[in-house]
């Protein structure tokens, strides 16, 4: 039945064009429906748990909040791992799930676990609440809002964002969360004078008590509400002004009424101010005070769609900005994605143009060229319809697949057109030529396509995030091949029957060029045949060289550095700032000013946004981050203008700033795995408390020092953790407290409210409720002496200085305590040194941990490093599985295990070429290179198939093994060179790529170009030799020898194998081929290689 398909389409050209147009229309409709992305969505799902414990120190938050929550969350269904940060007053826990997990179910499962833990949390924590929400670890966009001419302060801008932007942005489809850099949300601050309070016999807690009793929301009911006496004709609700509305009303708060009628009000012991809820961070944009909005996408959403939605929303919101308020994008990961996809599309167009050029060069006939040309858009656009059905995105990998498929999808069309054109040249009518050619070729077209698809389809069944990356690439090629096969059975023969005509010699410059080209090609063929004859004569030496090549392949495989995905120039530089422990926020602000001066000297830096008091690994007054946006890629074409070169320069300059450690890094190569580029290692204390935090930190420093001595790391390893933040230990003398009749809790509350602030209740401003805080004014909480001068009141109303009942001792401790899967952990970050791969860096880091870690201290990788390690063996498995599938497919096709072995022996040669090309360019064997290696299985096998099948057919005609091999080499030289040249030129734009995303294209293109080039050259030389050797061994040991007929010796005196007929001289033009008894792969690409003057018109 399959053989009748082509005849049906040949006889029904209208049906043929309808089917082709349907493929184009359906695929074209699906193109705008495909989401755009840089890579498939492989990032883990993160559920972020947040809790607040105002006034609590780090270790109290760790033990009372974080550990309590972790013990309940641990083991939630689908969880991969869990990290947490405990800092003064807050706890943040991140629970990670696999990319395939339903984010809503993951969030609900975590919330159910939190519900069990909430009753065990301190009352203050329960008052604030514990939240859980899904969000990405990577920032998608950062907007900076700033005054054009200093018209507005940060407090106004921050609250403008809160009132007018936050809710609208959070409602934008795909937005998961927002972080406000430099946030200063409105709050009523009651700044108290502890001395004035003490002189009146009052404490801070008295102010809180008065505030709770006088600033309240209360309902007074309704007059006339049922049940009522008969005749009541109205019902009127009552309203009470229970809350204070502004600072002046708060200053009239009555704290105490004296016996003589005197009132002590807040204004007598302090002041009220509409201020900020927190004063722990600042932000600057190009040196101007600013507020930043960091936008995180929701897991599973499409980055480009979310960015587009957010920017559209912001453009609408900006229309209502007050005069002088400006907004600017200062960090944009999507710009890189868009630019990268545009570059890949440009590469695709270049590849198509080069492939068409090669086709025309070899076919030398514009009519014959049009037919394979049509196969390209039909196959590629049609494949996108399948991509939509399978819910793929239009990303780098799918576009790479289309680029690589460009060289494959024309092959079948070329085969068909060549076979039909040859018959037309022999005098057949085009219709008859099409029918006869397809009778010969249909089976072979299908079987060859099955061989190629056997490489790619099994990849679809590999699990995990990395498997998902391979799946989209492999299946898009398989879809393209499937459609190209259908096209070769339908459109190509049908249109050939209409378009092809007997050729006429080309004239003019084109005819002259084709004549010269054909003569040169014929000369190359003659030299090639002489070389093949020579290699067959010294075949055992060739086998020795082949074995050396296998050894070289193994050597290259084990010595070419490995990686996950290359670090790209994303047009952004991130940086982290860490000042000395214990410094104030304005100290970090001064460091940022120096940092800005360095960045402003870089002409490639377009914008600088920095924030103090915020860190990716936890907040603190000594921490900060910055985002430096670079100029567009087309304006940075020189080697010293790349992001990598800029990083090297500015890090060298940052080292000259003694006030802080400043490190500039790249963004993460894959969004959603981490916030920064490089690797992250969690060093874990598994000693069950036997190590103090200081001992653990000392061991972490030893590990880091050991790692920084490794050449692959070379000083690039660091941690933001510190255990030496200056602190004061307050020890209350409980015996003394009891003797003076002072309640311990009241003493602690007095200290906490005065120094650390205390949230009491709320007030209403506009339609929103804001918090009211009490705290000692700034001049009364600057030094330990201010603590000692605080007063507490005893039960008999005696005022007692805190210095009489408490001892203040200087100490040190961590500002943030991290956990990994419940263990105390220190996050170690780093990146590979110049000239080394991420795989080498990971290996060096693991060695450092083994060498320097204390017994009981373990480690685990997170982020992209974790994914790279989990993907380590997957590439080898996919490659091995591809080899097995091709072998089995070929064995079934040939009914032999010998011929597939000959064919697949060319694959190591392709690997040698690919790995050597990577090594020569200083590239690594990463995911993209692995994709190329899988692709090379099919490409190398296809070339060998052409030779082996034709040689088998020649054997059936009666040639000796040696003659069959030489004949096959001669006949298949032109088709192999033609199809390989088309593929090589299709890959070449990847090799020389520039602009956004060029590193990934280099990796893929270099491996493919080098592998196919070497495979083409060596398979043309080695396959005939292997064929002679292996077929002779098969004749000698596996087949029963027939009686030897009388025959003259071969011209060189050798008879390799037995002949069933008198051999025909190689190249004899009178030799004919019985196509119906041959494997059609041979026939379908058998053009008349002696043709030199085909029609060009």
TrEMBL record:
GO terms for molecular function: efflux transmembrane transporter activity; xenobiotic transmembrane transporter activity. Keywords: Cell inner membrane, Cell membrane, Membrane, Transmembrane, Transmembrane helix, Transport. The keyword Manganese does not apply. Its main location: membrane. Residues 1086-1097 have a biased composition (Basic and acidic residues). It is a multi-pass membrane protein. The chain crosses the membrane at residues 344-363, 370-391, 397-420, 441-461, 473-500, 538-557, 874-894, 901-920, 932-955, 976-996, 1008-1030. One of its GO terms (biological process) is response to toxic substance. Belongs to the resistance-nodulation-cell division (RND) (TC 2.A.6) family. This is Transporter, hydrophobe/amphiphile efflux-1 (HAE1) family. It comes from Nostoc punctiforme (strain ATCC 29133 / PCC 73102).
């Amino acid at each position: 039945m399959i053989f009748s398909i082509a005849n049906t389409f040949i006889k029904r050209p209208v049906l043929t064009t309808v089917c082709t147009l349907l493929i184009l229309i359906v695929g074209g409709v699906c193109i705008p429906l495909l989401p755009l992305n840089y890579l498939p969505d492989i990032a883990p799902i993160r559920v972020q748990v947040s809790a607040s414990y105002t006034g609590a120190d780090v270790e109290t938050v760790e033990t009372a909040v974080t550990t309590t929550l972790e013990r309940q969350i641990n083991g939630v269904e689908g969880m991969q791992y869990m990290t947490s940060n405990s800092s003064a007053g807050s706890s943040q826990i991140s629970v990670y799930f696999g990319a395939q997990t339903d984010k809503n179910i993951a969030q609900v499962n975590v919330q159910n676990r939190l519900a069990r833990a909430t009753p065990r949390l301190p009352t203050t924590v329960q008052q604030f609440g514990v939240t859980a929400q899904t969000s990405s670890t990577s920032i998608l966009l950062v907007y900076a809002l700033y005054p054009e001419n200093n018209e507005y302060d940060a407090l106004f801008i921050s609250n403008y964002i809160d009132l007018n932007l936050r809710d609208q942005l959070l409602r934008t489809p795909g937005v998961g969360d927002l972080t406000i850099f430099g946030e200063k949300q409105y709050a009523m601050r009651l700044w108290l004078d502890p001395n004035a309070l003490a002189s009146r016999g009052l404490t801070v807690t008295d102010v809180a008590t008065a505030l709770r009793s006088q600033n309240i929301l209360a309902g007074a009911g309704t007059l006339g509400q049922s049940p009522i006496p008969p005749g009541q004709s109205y019902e009127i609700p009552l309203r009470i002004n229970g809350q204070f509305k502004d600072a002046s009303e708060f200053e009239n708060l009555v704290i105490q009424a004296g016996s003589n009628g005197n009132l002590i009000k807040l204004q007598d012991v302090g002041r009220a101010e509409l201020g900020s809820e927190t004063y722990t961070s600042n932000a600057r944009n190009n040196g101007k005070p600013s507020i930043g909005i960091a936008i995180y996408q929701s897991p599973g959403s499409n980055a480009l769609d979310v960015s587009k939605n957010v920017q559209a929303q912001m453009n609408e919101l900006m229309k209502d900005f007050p005069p002088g308020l400006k907004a600017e994008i200062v960090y944009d990961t999507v710009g890189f994605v868009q630019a990268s996809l545009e570059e890949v599309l440009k590469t695709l167009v270049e590849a198509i143009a080069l492939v068409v050029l090669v086709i025309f060069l070899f076919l030398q006939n514009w009519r014959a060229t049009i037919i394979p040309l049509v196969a390209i858009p039909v196959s590629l656009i049609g494949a996108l319809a399948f991509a939509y059905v399978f819910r793929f995105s239009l990303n780098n990998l799918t576009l790479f697949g289309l680029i690589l498929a460009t060289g494959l999808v024309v092959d079948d069309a070329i085969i068909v057109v060549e076979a039909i054109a040859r018959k037309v040249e022999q005098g057949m009518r085009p219709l008859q030529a099409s029918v006869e050619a397809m009778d010969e070729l249909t089976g072979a077209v299908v079987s060859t396509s099955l061989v190629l698809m056997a490489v790619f389809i099994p990849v679809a069944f590999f699990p995990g995030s990395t498997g998902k990356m391979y799946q989209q690439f492999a299946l898009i090629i398989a879809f393209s091949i499937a459609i190209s096969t259908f096209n070769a059975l339908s459109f190509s023969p049908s249109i050939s029957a209409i378009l092809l005509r007997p050729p006429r010699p080309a004239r003019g410059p084109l005819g002259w060029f084709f004549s010269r080209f054909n003569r040169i090609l014929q000369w190359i063929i003659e030299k090639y045949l002489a070389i093949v004859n020579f290699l067959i004569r010294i075949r055992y030496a060739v086998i020795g060289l082949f074995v050396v090549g296998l050894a070289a392949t193994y050597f290259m495989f084990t010595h070419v550095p490995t990686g996950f995905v290359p670090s790209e120039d994303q047009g952004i530089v991130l940086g982290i700032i860490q000042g000395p422990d214990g410094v104030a926020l304005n100290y970090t602000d001064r460091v940022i000013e120096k940092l800005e001066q360095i960045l402003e000297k870089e002409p490639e830096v377009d914008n600088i946004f920095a924030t103090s008091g915020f860190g990716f690994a936890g907040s603190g007054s000594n921490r900060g981050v910055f985002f430096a946006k670079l100029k567009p890629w087309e304006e940075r074409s020189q080697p010293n203008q790349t992001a990598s070169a800029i990083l090297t320069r500015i890090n060298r300059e940052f080292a000259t700033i003694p006030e802080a450690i400043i490190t500039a890094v790249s963004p993460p190569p894959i969004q959603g795995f981490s916030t920064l580029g490089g690797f992250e290692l969690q060093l874990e204390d598994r000693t069950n408390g036997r190590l103090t935090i200081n001992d653990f930190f000392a061991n972490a420093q030893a590990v880091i020092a050991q790692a920084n001595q490794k050449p692959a790391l070379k000083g690039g390893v660091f941690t933001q953790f510190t255990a030496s933040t200056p602190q004061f230990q307050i020890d209350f003398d409980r015996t003394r407290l009891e003797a003076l009749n002072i309640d311990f809790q009241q003493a602690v509350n007095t200290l906490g409210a005065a120094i650390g602030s205390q949230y009491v209740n709320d007030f209403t401003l506009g339609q929103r409720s804001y918090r009211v805080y009490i705290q000692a004014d700034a001049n009364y909480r600057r030094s330990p002496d201010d603590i000692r001068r605080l007063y507490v009141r005893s039960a008999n109303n005696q005022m007692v200085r805190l210095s009489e009942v408490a001892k203040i001792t200087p100490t040190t401790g961590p500002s943030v305590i991290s956990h990994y899967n419940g263990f105390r952990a220190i996050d170690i970050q780093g990146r590979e040194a110049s000239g080394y791969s991420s795989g080498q860096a990971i290996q060096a880091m693991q060695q450092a941990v083994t060498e320097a870690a204390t017994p009981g201290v373990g480690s685990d990788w997170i982020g992209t490093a974790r994914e790279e390690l989990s993907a380590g063996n997957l590439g080898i498995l996919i490659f091995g599985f591809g080899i097995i599938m091709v072998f089995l497919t070929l064995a079934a096709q040939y009914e032999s295990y010998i011929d597939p072995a000959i064919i697949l022996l060319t694959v190591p040669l392709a690997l040698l070429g690919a790995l050597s090309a990577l090594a020569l360019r200083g590239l690594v064997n990463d995911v993209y290179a692995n994709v190329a290696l899988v692709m090379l299985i099919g490409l190398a096998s296809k070339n060998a198939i052409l030779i082996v099948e034709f040689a088998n057919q020649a054997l059936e005609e009666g040639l000796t093994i040696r003659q069959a091999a030489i004949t096959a080499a001669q006949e298949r030289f032109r088709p192999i060179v033609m199809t390989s040249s088309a593929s090589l030129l299709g890959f070449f734009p990847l090799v020389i790529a520039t602009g956004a995303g060029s590193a990934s294209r280099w990796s893929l293109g270099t491996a493919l170009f080098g592998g196919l080039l070497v495979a083409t050259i060596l398979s043309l030389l080695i396959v005939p030799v292997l064929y002679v050797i292996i077929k002779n061994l098969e004749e000698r040991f596996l087949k029963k020898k027939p009686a030897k007929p009388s025959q003259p010796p071969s011209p060189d005196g050798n008879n390799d194998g037995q002949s069933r007929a008198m051999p025909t001289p190689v190249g004899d033009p009178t030799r004919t081929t019985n196509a119906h008894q041959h494997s059609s792969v041979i026939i379908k690409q058998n053009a008349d290689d002696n043709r030199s003057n085909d029609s060009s018109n």
